[in-house]
């Protein structure tokens, strides 16, 4: 086939395929480089970066649930400086053509703004994912993502300084996600990524205490896929922003299901832990899957779905 | 890899023999495999240490205790079943510069004993004199006693006194120091309590190592699930990852 | 053992064990009577009852998700009259000792109030579960459960007429569940039941359309268990109301996990579809499970957990 | 029950033979079993019709097409595997008052054909003359042709004309009416399109029955997943449940 049926273009990101590892599930990229050639990926969504280094939450930080997992990593990262001088350059040298999405988090608006202003300076960072929905930190994070006004202010402030397009990552832990989506759209966001994790808890029957040291964690994996699809279709019908969808994707069929809900590209998180080769496997399975369901290309599918929503 | 034998060693304790090309890459004792549970509902792999590696037959053995859903499913797998294996992972025990005639304390507690078996074997092949100090909860969960005894001195303690010395491994260590003097090498794997004791006892021993456990997701250093604080770090920012900086660390370095 | 280790007393309900089939998953009780003796159950939470008969949503109404399912039944029921004259009496005749929890829903506050006023007239109805959280109906339902003020008003109005204690069923689809819980506590609720289903969607790749005729459905089953536990422990720490917990319970261990989160009794929903004998199986497994984890009785466990929360 | 044989009848189409005491309760053709998929992740059972019941060997046969995850897992189960079965469920075909020498049209479309086989067998044992009209998508997904032929007249149509008559079962019905006259009994199972056609053609036929499909959860009448509207109901409140009022209904009664 002359034409690449998997390619997709969204603000800042001209991707050869829509598959990218989700933020926090793939480190700063190089960790998985011994398993496959990262050039196969559409992009990589890097681990959250904050202005200063963070250690994150006490351990245990992960536990398992039916068809899902809880994590309370707490945004551990080496801070903007190290990310800019070491992490992104390492990828840029080894994979100069691979676009990276930087994930930005912070405790205060000033933090976010400073990181957003600088992080686009890395030549391979083509977009920012503004993480206003991390459920695992006391300050910032989800706080900004559950209040439409704060979400608006933060997005606007970050947009005014960022040198690359901004995708705002929405939290599912809200009564009305459309309200938040519209606020960040009004504030100038270039796109959305959704969903971040739901909040969950598991207890140990032996200790009678929560398994996670942080008590609560973020629920991810196939367990949340129907919730992700619900929120994506709801937002896709009400805003014009392109959506990078995520939440439980394990197969090429799942990718298409996210397109049917209105996503323009997708990220794969938890599944990397189940199978480190999951991303290339999905990418390789997609063409046959498109054939099977009679889909010409992902861009055509996206357009068809958007058209359908308009007339619904 | 292919499961070729499953043995019930003791109540809830099983030994799995796996066959496959991957064995070629298993060179260092103390490394672990990250096993996918064959159940669609369970997404996280299970880290299990290599207990024995046999290059000639391309097999390796894992010993595991049934703790929860995943190990329970492992215990019901049958000969010929395929098992999805990542690894070998982790740094393993550093035995590059051990010398013949050195004395090594090989300390294993309960389900921490398995990796010590392959370690002992490899140390012996390098001429090291091994003193194996093993602790178990009670008599009927002891496993591999004969196999360890074939390798060298083996002392056993049980928490409830039903076999060997009454008490925990700490006592065995004290006794062994009295009997054999300070060891040139120390290697330990077991419960957090055991590791703490070893860490304290051999705080500034130049060649003492402990194998750490942590809840893991990726096991390749990408998710930051398995971090441990480094001792005496004022910033609070220093850490190691058990999955790829470890699971083996020098004593005296970490906040256990 | 002389003492019944499984017994539990909460307002209106003196239960020999804390296991009850969840509303909507067990009809009006008699449907499962051919599978086991319903007298084994602690109680039964009946299907939602509305003032007038309802047909519910178009079909398909159910579909499957990883470790979960979506339903959009839409409160189909024969209406208060038939429920009072046929459904509850049928149970009362066959199982005179079995306490029933009536589940009440409606489109308007007046509807709710009228049903609440009358439904306690059935001699076996010992409590009402006020369903202000059904995600599958256009009017009423979740609307009342996502706004603290409406939740307060409705609960207060129902309390003023009800002849049996009222447990308010909370929706997980909110930003701040504690706010809702406190409102209904202030309004005089006797207890809470949580959680109702999360909202989800699944698409058919063949038709490229949502599988459910209603588009969205309520997500239930083990997939949502960590979310249920999270919300229950959060509410249990902030209110004094007893909580009947539900969301993905499949085993006796799950029951204890819900107690650790602060529940006083539990309901089993989706699991009935997987195994029609699940409730008696859980009940029979509980004593050994208590032994294994060194728990004297469920009441003792509940008290220990509550005590722990106070000092946390 | 115990799976004792699994046969691949055609691409994606399998026949499972189950053995167990439950067969004793299987008395009416057209009933179905509700099978638990042996995967912790899949909570809903799968309804599959009884295709053949053999009291002497205590076995029954199910024929199913691999559609999604559940049937795919069924197709990989092996002899000796246990399968958790609820049932028999549903009303089944009412053959209580059929008379010898009556003529029955037995209409099956694709994966709707299986229950018609047991039905035909039982009707024949009562002396009914069966005319079997079967539709399939294409030649290579035809199954049980020989078995149906042994029971009586069998006409086959394929949607693509690769075998038998070109077209859908409706044409076979018209042809059969011409050839054999109006049937005394009509029984049909298949796609919604097929059922609609039969429902229309035999709208007020006194003994015409269709087997309905619906997405189910409980299959015991408790969850209201499988309801179907009743025709000409002004209130909009009348309904039947496919799982326990059905799956077999008289023609002319439901909104299909
Ligand atoms: C490097 C390393 C080597 C290990 N080697 C062995 C070994 O040789 N033999 C052996 O029996 N056990 C070993 N363990 C512990 C083993 O991984 C756990 O007992 C096992 O994962 C429990 O899984 P489960 O499904 O039975 O329990 P569940 O409680 O159902 O597991 C739920 C989740 O918690 C994790 N988990 C639970 N307990 C532990 C634990 N103690 N350590 C790490 N993760 C845990 C599981 O991996 C899983 O993700 C090792 C652990 C580590 C980190
Ligand atoms: C009374 C009755 C009798 C049936 N008899 C047969 C038979 O003899 N042979 C056969 O091949 N099929 C039969 N079916 C259809 C069969 O139940 C479905 O093909 C099967 O459930 C699909 O499961 P899956 O896991 O492969 O598909 P998935 O798409 O993974 O299933 C997901 C969910 O949807 C439900 N579902 C999907 N398709 C259908 C469907 N067509 N009807 C009902 N539920 C569906 C499943 O039960 C499950 O709950 C019958 C259905 C009913 C209602
Ligand atoms: C271990 C782990 C760490 C995560 N860290 C981050 C993070 O740093 N920033 C972020 O925006 N999302 C983070 N997430 C959320 C994921 O990016 C993703 O939104 C979510 O897991 C849903 O996708 P999945 O079901 O495919 O995992 C993390 C998820 C996991 C499981
Ligand atoms: C098919 C179905 C129908 C339901 N109908 C009702 C209902 O009528 N009223 C109600 O309050 N909850 C209803 N629920 C929600 C359940 O009572 C329960 O809160 C939820 O399913 C979570 O428990 P589970 O995971 O054990 O199913 C329904 C759930 C299902 C699956
Ligand atoms: S387990 Fe992921 S970093 Fe160690
Ligand atoms: S499937 Fe539950 S009522 Fe029919």
From TrEMBL, chains A, C:
<feature type="domain" description="Dihydroorotate dehydrogenase catalytic">
    <location>
        <begin position="6"/>
        <end position="290"/>
    </location>
</feature>
<keyword id="KW-0963">Cytoplasm</keyword>
<feature type="binding site">
    <location>
        <begin position="269"/>
        <end position="270"/>
    </location>
    <ligand>
        <name>FMN</name>
    </ligand>
</feature>
<feature type="binding site">
    <location>
        <begin position="71"/>
        <end position="75"/>
    </location>
    <ligand>
        <name>substrate</name>
    </ligand>
</feature>
<comment type="subunit">
    <text>Heterotetramer of 2 PyrK and 2 PyrD type B subunits.</text>
</comment>
<feature type="binding site">
    <location>
        <position position="47"/>
    </location>
    <ligand>
        <name>substrate</name>
    </ligand>
</feature>
<feature type="binding site">
    <location>
        <position position="221"/>
    </location>
    <ligand>
        <name>FMN</name>
    </ligand>
</feature>
<dbReference type="InterPro" id="IPR024920">
    <property type="entry name" value="Dihydroorotate_DH_1"/>
</dbReference>
<dbReference type="InterPro" id="IPR005720">
    <property type="entry name" value="Dihydroorotate_DH_cat"/>
</dbReference>
<feature type="binding site">
    <location>
        <position position="103"/>
    </location>
    <ligand>
        <name>FMN</name>
    </ligand>
</feature>
<dbReference type="InterPro" id="IPR050074">
    <property type="entry name" value="DHO_dehydrogenase"/>
</dbReference>
<keyword id="KW-0560">Oxidoreductase</keyword>
<keyword id="KW-0285">Flavoprotein</keyword>
<feature type="binding site">
    <location>
        <begin position="247"/>
        <end position="248"/>
    </location>
    <ligand>
        <name>FMN</name>
    </ligand>
</feature>
<keyword id="KW-0288">FMN</keyword>
<feature type="binding site">
    <location>
        <position position="131"/>
    </location>
    <ligand>
        <name>substrate</name>
    </ligand>
</feature>
<feature type="binding site">
    <location>
        <begin position="196"/>
        <end position="197"/>
    </location>
    <ligand>
        <name>substrate</name>
    </ligand>
</feature>
<dbReference type="Pfam" id="PF01180">
    <property type="entry name" value="DHO_dh"/>
</dbReference>
<comment type="similarity">
    <text>Belongs to the dihydroorotate dehydrogenase family. Type 1 subfamily.</text>
</comment>
<dbReference type="InterPro" id="IPR013785">
    <property type="entry name" value="Aldolase_TIM"/>
</dbReference>
<comment type="pathway">
    <text>Pyrimidine metabolism; UMP biosynthesis via de novo pathway; orotate from (S)-dihydroorotate (NAD(+) route): step 1/1.</text>
</comment>
<comment type="function">
    <text>Catalyzes the conversion of dihydroorotate to orotate.</text>
</comment>
From TrEMBL, chains B, D:
<comment type="pathway">
    <text>Pyrimidine metabolism; UMP biosynthesis via de novo pathway; orotate from (S)-dihydroorotate (NAD(+) route): step 1/1.</text>
</comment>
<dbReference type="Pfam" id="PF10418">
    <property type="entry name" value="DHODB_Fe-S_bind"/>
</dbReference>
<comment type="similarity">
    <text>Belongs to the PyrK family.</text>
</comment>
<feature type="binding site">
    <location>
        <position position="223"/>
    </location>
    <ligand>
        <name>[2Fe-2S] cluster</name>
    </ligand>
</feature>
<dbReference type="InterPro" id="IPR017927">
    <property type="entry name" value="FAD-bd_FR_type"/>
</dbReference>
<feature type="binding site">
    <location>
        <position position="218"/>
    </location>
    <ligand>
        <name>[2Fe-2S] cluster</name>
    </ligand>
</feature>
<dbReference type="InterPro" id="IPR019480">
    <property type="entry name" value="Dihydroorotate_DH_Fe-S-bd"/>
</dbReference>
<keyword id="KW-0249">Electron transport</keyword>
<dbReference type="InterPro" id="IPR050353">
    <property type="entry name" value="PyrK_electron_transfer"/>
</dbReference>
<feature type="binding site">
    <location>
        <position position="243"/>
    </location>
    <ligand>
        <name>[2Fe-2S] cluster</name>
    </ligand>
</feature>
<feature type="binding site">
    <location>
        <begin position="46"/>
        <end position="49"/>
    </location>
    <ligand>
        <name>FAD</name>
    </ligand>
</feature>
<dbReference type="GO" id="GO:0044205">
    <property type="term" value="P:'de novo' UMP biosynthetic process"/>
</dbReference>
<comment type="function">
    <text>Responsible for channeling the electrons from the oxidation of dihydroorotate from the FMN redox center in the PyrD type B subunit to the ultimate electron acceptor NAD(+).</text>
</comment>
<feature type="binding site">
    <location>
        <begin position="70"/>
        <end position="71"/>
    </location>
    <ligand>
        <name>FAD</name>
    </ligand>
</feature>
<dbReference type="InterPro" id="IPR023455">
    <property type="entry name" value="Dihydroorotate_DHASE_ETsu"/>
</dbReference>
<dbReference type="InterPro" id="IPR017938">
    <property type="entry name" value="Riboflavin_synthase-like_b-brl"/>
</dbReference>
<feature type="domain" description="FAD-binding FR-type">
    <location>
        <begin position="1"/>
        <end position="95"/>
    </location>
</feature>
<keyword id="KW-0408">Iron</keyword>
<dbReference type="GO" id="GO:0051537">
    <property type="term" value="F:2 iron, 2 sulfur cluster binding"/>
</dbReference>
<keyword id="KW-0001">2Fe-2S</keyword>
<keyword id="KW-0285">Flavoprotein</keyword>
<dbReference type="Pfam" id="PF00970">
    <property type="entry name" value="FAD_binding_6"/>
</dbReference>
């Amino acid at each position: 086939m002359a034409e690449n049926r998997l390619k997709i273009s969204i603000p800042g990101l001209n991707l050869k395929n829509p598959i990218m590892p989700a933020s926090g599930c793939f480190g700063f990229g190089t960790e998985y480089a011994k398993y496959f050639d990262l050039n196969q990926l559409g992009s990589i969504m890097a681990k959250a970066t904050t202005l200063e280094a963070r250690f994150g939450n006490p351990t245990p930080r992960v536990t398992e649930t039916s068809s899902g997992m809880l994590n309370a990593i707490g945004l551990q990262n080496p801070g903007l400086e190290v990310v800019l001088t070491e992490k992104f350059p390492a990828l840029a040298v080894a994979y100069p053509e691979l676009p990276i999405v930087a994930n930005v988090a912070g405790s205060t608006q000033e933090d976010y703004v400073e990181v957003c202003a600088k992080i686009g300076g890395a030549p391979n960072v083509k977009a920012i994912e503004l993480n206003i929905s991390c459920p695992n930190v006391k300050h910032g994070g989800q706080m900004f993502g559950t209040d439409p006004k704060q979400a608006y202010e933060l997005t606007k402030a970050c947009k005014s300084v960022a040198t690359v397009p901004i995708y705002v990552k929405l939290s599912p832990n809200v009564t009305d996600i459309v309200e938040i989506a519209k606020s960040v759209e009004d504030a100038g966001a270039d796109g959305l990524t959704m969903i971040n994790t739901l909040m969950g808890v598991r207890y140990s029957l032996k200790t009678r205490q929560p398994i996670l040291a942080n008590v609560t964690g973020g629920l991810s994996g196939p367990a949340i896929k129907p919730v992700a699809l619900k929120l994506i279709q709801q937002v896709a019908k009400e805003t014009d922003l392109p959506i990078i969808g995520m939440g439980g994707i394990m197969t090429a069929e799942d990718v298409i299901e996210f397109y049917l809900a209105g996503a323009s590209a997708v990220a794969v998180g938890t599944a990397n832990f189940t199978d480190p080769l999951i991303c290339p496997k999905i990418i390789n399975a997609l063409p046959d899957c498109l054939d099977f369901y009679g889909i010409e290309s992902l861009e055509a599918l996206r357009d068809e779905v958007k058209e359908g929503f308009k007339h619904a | 890899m292919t499961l070729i034998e499953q043995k019930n060693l003791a109540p809830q304790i099983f030994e799995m023999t796996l066959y496959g090309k991957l064995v070629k890459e298993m060179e260092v004792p103390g490394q672990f495999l990250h096993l996918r549970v064959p159940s669609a509902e369970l997404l996280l792999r299970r880290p299990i240490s290599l207990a024995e590696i046999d290059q000639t037959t391309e097999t390796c053995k894992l010993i595991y205790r049934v703790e929860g859903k995943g190990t329970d499913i492992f215990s019901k797998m049958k000969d010929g079943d395929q098992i999805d294996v990542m690894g070998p992972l982790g740094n393993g025990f550093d035995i590059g510069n051990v010398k013949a005639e050195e004395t090594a304390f090989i300390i294993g507690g309960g389900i921490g004993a398995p990796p010590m078996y392959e370690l002992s074997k490899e140390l012996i092949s390098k001429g090291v004199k091994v003193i194996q100090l093993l602790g178990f909860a009670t008599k009927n969960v002891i496993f591999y006693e004969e196999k360890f005894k074939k390798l060298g001195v083996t002392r056993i303690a049980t928490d409830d006194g039903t076999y060997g010395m009454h008490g925990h491994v700490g006592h065995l260590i004290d006794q062994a120091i009295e009997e054999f003097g300070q060891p040139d090498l120390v290697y330990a794997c077991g419960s957090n309590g055991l590791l703490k004791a070893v860490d304290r006892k051999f705080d500034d021993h130049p060649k003492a190592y402990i194998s750490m456990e942590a809840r893991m997701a990726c096991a390749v250093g990408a998710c930051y699930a398995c971090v441990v604080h480094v001792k005496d770090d004022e910033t609070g920012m220093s850490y190691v990852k058990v999955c790829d900086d470890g699971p083996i660390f020098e004593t005296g370095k970490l906040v256990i």
